[in-house]
Write a structure and sequence with these properties.
Keywords: Hydrolase
Pfam families: Nt_Gln_amidase (PF09764)
InterPro entries: N_Gln_amidohydro_ab_roll_sf, NTAQ1, Prot_N_Gln_amidohydro_ab_roll
Shape: globular
GO molecular function: protein-N-terminal asparagine amidohydrolase activity; protein-N-terminal glutamine amidohydrolase activity
CATH topology: C8orf32 fold
EC number: 3.5.1.122
Order of helices and strands: HEEEEEEH
CATH architecture: Roll
CATH class: Alpha Beta
Largest sheet: 4 strands, antiparallel
Helix content: 10-25%
Number of helices: 2
Number of domains: 1
Distance between the termini: 39 Å
């Protein structure tokens, strides 16, 4: 559903304005409410999130540490947990696609983070925690949702 196409959220989306100066990641936790968020418009939300991370100095000035990740599959059924739009205790929902931002400074001393405005996990979440708790790759075994390794040639 993300992108406004699943059945979990209804009604007209209404933007929520962001304060002008969210705190820097290095100084204190970043509050998810300090970013613009329009329900069901994950790609636009992530675009604005990345711009704000750059503007406030949380990300590299050129944005080279930010990666916009579209999560989808052929079936257009992306199961995710810990989503605010989920109607169960574990926040499960099946989006048709979802978009997140991964911040990676490519350093062993600094964690990679996932910025997901639609998640109820910590904001931002360490990449390892997000994959484990929101994506839960081990939940599907050999189902059609299992990740396939790309062909690497011989």
């Amino acid at each position: 559903m993300d992108g406004g196409r699943a059945a979990a959220v209804g009604g007209d989306p209404s933007p929520i304005a962001a304060p002008s100066n969210p705190p820097a990641l290095s100084s204190r936790p970043v509050d998810v409410s300090s970013f613009t968020h329009t329900p069901c418009y994950c790609e636009e939300n992530v675009y604005m999130l990345c711009n704000e991370l750059i503007r406030t100095g949380v990300a590299d000035p050129a944005g080279t540490d930010l990666y916009v990740v579209f999560i989808s599959n052929e079936e257009k059924k992306v199961p995710l947990w810990h989503q605010k739009a989920g109607h169960s205790d574990d926040g499960f929902i099946c989006w048709d696609y979802h978009v997140i931002c991964i911040q990676s400074r490519r350093s062993k001393e600094v964690l990679d983070f996932v910025w997901d405005l639609d998640s109820d996990l910590p904001f931002p979440s360490p990449l390892i925690q997000y994959v484990s708790e929101a994506i839960q790759p081990l939940s599907f075994g050999n189902s059609r949702y299992a990740r396939q390794k790309p062909y690497e040639g011989s």
